Amino acid sequence: MLIENTFDFKKDDQITLKLVTSEEIIADFLAIDGEFLTVQHPLTATITEKGVNLHPCMLTTHMDEKLKIHKNHILIVAKPNEEAIQTFKEAVARPRKEQNDIT
Fold it and tell me: Which CATH architecture fits 14-94?
């Protein structure tokens, strides 16, 4: 569980989260507020035959929505590698209809 913002992330930095459910999420970091980490543009990373695939973390919300994740559900917070950041930025820039399955 994260206790405080002891890592060196700033607003709008890209971060990777490993959740207790084993999901890996890449998102824009917004803030730590009490017991919650606030992110925007969360994409779930999965492995396919073609490599890493990014798709919306939540299928029924807009990607621009600010989402709060309770600290108790986060195992690891890390800076993504440059390739992941580039893929993430390209995915976020795509029109909504193309964001359902991003490789």
Answer: Roll (2.30)
Long-range contacts of 66-69 (CB under 8 A, 24+ apart): 66/30, 66/38, 66/39, 66/40, 67/27, 67/38, 67/39, 67/40, 67/42, 68/33, 68/36, 68/37, 68/38, 69/17, 69/19, 69/36, 69/37, 69/38, 69/39
Encode burial over 93-102: b for 16+ CB neighbours within 10 A, e otherwise. Answer: eeeeeebeeb
Task: Quote the CA–CA distance of 48 and 60 in Å, as a whole number.
Answer: 23
| Residue 91 structure tokens | 């995915």
Token representation of residue 5: 């913002």
Place of tokens 């569980």: 1
2-37 pLDDT tens trace: 445 556 789 999 999 999 999 999 999 999 988 999
- Tell me the whole-structure pTM to 2 decimals: 0.82
What are the sequence ranges of the domains in the chain? 14-94
Residue 43 three-state SS: strand
